Amino acid sequence: MRVVPDTNVLVSAIVFGGPPGRLIELAAEGHIQLVLSPPLIDELREVLRRKFGFSDAAAHQAETLLRRISTVVEPQQEVAVISEDPEDNRVLEAALAGDADVVVSGDRHLLDVNTFGDIPILSPRVLLKRITSS
Predict the structure, then answer these.
(1) Which residue of 95, 98, 114, 130 is 20 to 30 Å from 89, comparing CA positions?
(2) Which DSSP helix (H) or strand (E) runs through 116?
(3) Residue from 126, 130, 134, 116 nearest 19 by CA
(4) Nearest alpha carbon to residue 26 among 69, 62, 59, 76
(5) CA atoms of 123 and 107, how far apart (whole Å)
(6) Which helix (H) or strand (E) holds 110?
(7) From the DSSP assignment, how many helices (H) and strands (E) are in the chain?
(8) At what angle do helices 38-52 and 89-97 cross, to 10 degrees?
(9) How does pLDDT run across 58-87, given as a tens digit for each residue?
(10) C-alpha dist (Å) from residue 56 to 10, 44, 47
(11) 46: number of Cβ within 10 Å
């Protein structure tokens, strides 16, 4: 299963654990494939530094670990689905470029979209339930 996590899921996984952290563990164990893009990685680094006080080295270490368990794609197509928070469109662009099966997010703008084409947008908790029940 190819999964595009949005930045808040990645940050929550790194800082707090919980269901987002479990998704990262599943990726590290090879049960799911995370799909990231350079804009998502850039946003992750910036949020870790600005909001959580990570040093450059600590942010780089988190990025390196995520890159190791992810596929990084280069989006070729711009998307303008979410006008309230245009940065959320970067997640959808990564989903297109990475031929994702699902987008995982805790962001209401993305969750309100519900599906992007045939790609469902689910919360970490809902995705975990789907993975563990199959």
Answers:
(1) 130
(2) strand 115-116
(3) 126
(4) 69
(5) 8
(6) helix 108-113
(7) 7, 6
(8) 140
(9) 999 999 999 999 999 999 999 999 989 889
(10) 17, 12, 11
(11) 12
Percent helix / strand / coil, the chain, rounded to 5: 55, 15, 30
| Amino acid identity for residue 58 in this structure | A
Separation CA 49–CA 70 (nearest Å): 21
Amino acid at 123: S
Q: Closest by alpha carbon to 74, among 58, 97, 99?
A: 97
Length of the chain: 134
Structural tokens at position 6:
């949005």
User: Which tokens in the block code for residue 19?
Assistant: 């269901």
Judge contact between 110 and 103, C-beta under 8 A: yes
Q: Whose structure tokens read 């600005």?
A: 50
